[in-house]
């Protein structure tokens, strides 16, 4: 099972990681702030330049006019549902709908419609407003130009949207805003009712074509009837209301009327004859009846034969002669008739004959008209067909809704009007933009300067980027004679090395050899004076210390202590020209010192020999601490060879000068098996203020700060 202590590990690690991230961020911000102070004059120049640029842009910009058209966008299916989850879904869909409309309001498609609708490509006012030559821009480029003038501003908490156009011309701004709103409304209407409108337009075209065809066929029918003297009285129809080809003409009407009148006249004649015969005697009546019966039969046959055979047929002529003979016989017997009855009978007989003659004439005209009826019927059927097609299309057109195809859910609320005064350029807005740009540019300059300048700028870099413990931060010397300043026990330099000594002793691994080597990335970083200062600091706490100048190529420590190259030292000892080390006691410093001696030509080979190892071992037996001033790491192998003999290596680096990359490369060479780097010592730190509190950390009341400013 997991113990209670194990369970608390994860929260502790997480808390520690969060604290580490906060510290790293704080150190980064502090470093950037320090860099900003170093570049303050450059940053002030950037700010001033951007402000002047903003003023210049304001003065050079042409006046801009802003016109606004307002539309209302309503949701079609908006409304409460009575359920919370559905209301939420409705709200989401509403948001999606309005966001979609806002994007459509700024689309290139709408810009192209506006350019085409307003004919901006050929509009001299538009070209003059934007200073465009006639052939400079394509329709696509014109659409982009018009689109760049538009901004869509939804009015919060409402369904209203302002379409704002800003251009160098007040008139053009108003035209663009209004055209943009109108084309958006038209596009939305087309999207909703486009199919119905298209069908209606198609039906309108077809109706127009059929109307012309119907009018032409009716005109042709009327012309044919007039030419052939065909008078149509009315049209017969079927039970379903469809008109047929059969028409009642004037000839058919007259023939029908004459036929009815002829039948009536025949009846009257028969009645008159009956009345006349009633007055005769029975014998005469019988004889007359026989004659009249025969005549009636002859007349019936005559009427039938005339209809079928025509009046010129011999049989018809024979019957007519027989009837005439019967008439004469009947007339010869008419002496006994009453004169009034006789007159009535004769009148009826004349009327019948007259009507029969007229009937025959009308029948002739009808028969002649029948030959013209075929062509007339064809023309009539064409008229009827065109009328039926026209009526069917008209019915479909009515069903689509001629009066109202549908209402748009978007409406124009307020049209744009040309503004009376320009809305820009605004000096305040341009200055604000300039300040924002200046801020961004300044931050970029600070960050890039810090990124590309990888010199040692902050103690945090030693911990974060190099992984070394900071043993101390040594301030820049107040005088040119650093040795004299070290001899003052109250000087800041002495106090700083005293604090570093304490940190060094605590960082030295337990049981490690008391041999301390000081090295650096390159010369002149304070390694030599630090060797002397740490030796003096150890001597002040009662330690017996010997100081070795193993930087034999430069002999900087020997020169610092006033020893010339003629004094024999380590080079002679390691080369074998002398058997005992030349240990000099420096009374003013309280330490022993072995100079470098003459400058050898092969110091690396001398160090690699076994003599140095035995010397260090002998000195370690005689002294509490052996302090070695070694050569720099880069370009030489001496420091690596000496590092294997030391119990701990102190890496000296100069603030604001040494490159992090160079230090990292030097440490990579120095970090080999057997070489223990116990920490770093930062030298030449500016201690004019304690902004970051490093002085309190190291106990000497000053901090490591950049000196480039």
List the helices and strands and how they pair.
Blueprint: H1 4-7, H2 9-38, H3 40-60, E1 65-73, H4 84-104, H5 108-118, H6 124-129, H7 139-148, E2 150-154, E3 160-167, H8 170-227, E4 232-237, E5 243-249, H9 250-278, H10 282-309, H11 314-332, H12 339-399, E6 410-414, H13 427-452, H14 459-466, E7 470-475, H15 482-486, H16 492-507, E8 515-520, H17 527-540, E9 545-549, H18 556-560, H19 570-575, E10 584-586, E11 591-594, H20 603-608, H21 611-622, E12 625-629, H22 638-643, E13 648-654, H23 660-670, E14 677-685, H24 694-698
Parallel strand pairs: 7-14, 8-12, 8-13, 9-11, 9-12, 13-14
Antiparallel strand pairs: 1-3, 1-6, 2-3, 4-5, 10-11
Helix pairs in contact: 2-13, 3-13, 5-7, 5-8, 8-12, 9-12, 10-11, 16-17
Q: The CATH topology of the domain at 459-698, please?
A: Rossmann fold
| Rg result | 65 Å
What would CATH call the homologous superfamily of the domain at 459-698? P-loop containing nucleotide triphosphate hydrolases
Overall body shape = rod-shaped
Number of helices: 24
Task: Work out the helicity level.
Answer: 55-70%
Largest sheet: 8 strands, mixed
Structural class: alpha/beta
CATH class of the domain at 459-698, anyone?
Alpha Beta
User: Span between N and C termini?
Assistant: 60 Å
Low-confidence stretches: 1-10, 78-82, 236-245, 689-709
Assembly state? single chain
- Estimate the mean pLDDT confidence: 78
Describe it for me?
The chain has 709 residues and is an alpha/beta fold. Among the domains are: 9-61 and 426-452, no CATH class; 244-250 and 262-398; 459-698, P-loop containing nucleotide triphosphate hydrolases (Rossmann fold, 3-Layer(aba) Sandwich), CATH 3.40.50.300. 59% of the residues lie in helices and 12% in strands. The chain contains 24 helices and 14 strands. The chain has helices at 4-7, 9-38, 40-60, 84-104, 108-118, 124-129, 139-148, 170-227, 250-278, 282-309, 314-332, 339-399, 427-452, 459-466, 482-486, 492-507, 527-540, 556-560, 570-575, 603-608, 611-622, 638-643, 660-670, 694-698; strands at 65-73, 150-154, 160-167, 232-237, 243-249, 410-414, 470-475, 515-520, 545-549, 584-586, 591-594, 625-629, 648-654, 677-685. The protein has an 8-stranded mixed beta sheet, sandwiched between helices. The chain has a 4-stranded antiparallel beta sheet with strand order 2-3-1-6. Helix 5 (108-118) crosses helix 8 (170-227), helix 8 runs antiparallel to helix 12 (339-399) and helix 9 runs antiparallel to helix 12. It is rod-shaped and about 205 Å long. Mean pLDDT is 78; it is low at 1-10, 78-82, 236-245 and 689-709.
